[in-house]
Backbone:
């Protein structure tokens, strides 16, 4: 079995049994816009940059453009506003895009928004000097095609970031306690790296521990605060 298939099947194993979904008072998937907005605000509240921010910024020319795929409210791209002239956000949620545009405007930088799911939205997205994509991989069954589309839109660099383990894995003990259900322990960042390599990409990898609100919305806790960031040029 190749890495792309292993990734896709591992993600599928996270499906919640239908009886549990039917009994839930609301969908267990997704987070309110306010949580993503808090992360975006935290990303610009300090001059400190994450490793992913630094890799993106060092490749971004003065008054360059940034394409932020799965942008949420802009946590991945707003720290780059100090050098960029244009931030382009892609997200499936119109509310997320509104939060993104609001924060770009407050930062005094031009923005464009594209509502859609990547890589389907790639057909209408322009190229950019730097493409960033943070914490989207675990929602992406076809990670190989997803990453290739990111690469095709970058003139200088792609920077992808994700947690070391699935962001819901920190709740696995609770699933056993309350539902008697063992949850998966894959895929992981290591699995994602194998998919990228299989797709012909050789990303430079950095691992670190995030803290505070930058570590993400609940249920991301200690395990989920371990992050991996990868960067690669458009020629792979």
Residues:
């Amino acid at each position: 079995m190749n890495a792309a298939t292993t990734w896709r099947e591992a993600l599928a194993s996270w499906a919640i049994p239908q009886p549990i979904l039917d009994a839930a008072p609301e969908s267990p998937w997704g987070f309110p816009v306010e949580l993503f907005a808090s992360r975006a605000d935290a990303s610009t509240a300090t001059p400190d940059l994450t490793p992913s921010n630094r890799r993106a910024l060092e490749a971004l020319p003065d008054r360059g453009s940034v394409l932020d795929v799965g942008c949420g409210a802009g946590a991945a791209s707003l720290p780059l506003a100090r050098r960029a002239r244009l931030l382009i956000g892609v997200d499936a949620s119109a509310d997320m895009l509104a939060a993104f545009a609001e924060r770009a405007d407050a930062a005094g930088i031009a923005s464009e928004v594209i509502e859609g799911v990547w890589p389907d939205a790639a057909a209408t997205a322009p190229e950019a000097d730097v493409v960033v994509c943070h914490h989207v991989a675990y929602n992406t069954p076809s990670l190989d095609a997803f990453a290739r589309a990111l690469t095709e839109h970058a003139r200088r660099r792609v920077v992808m970031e994700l947690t070391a383990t699935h962001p819901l894995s920190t709740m696995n003990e609770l699933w056993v306690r309350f539902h008697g259900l063992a949850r998966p322990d894959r895929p992981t960042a290591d699995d994602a790296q194998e998919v990228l390599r299989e797709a012909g990409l050789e990303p430079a990898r950095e691992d670190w521990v995030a803290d505070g609100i930058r570590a993400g919305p609940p249920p991301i806790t200690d395990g989920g605060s371990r992050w991996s960031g990868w960067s690669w040029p458009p020629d792979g």
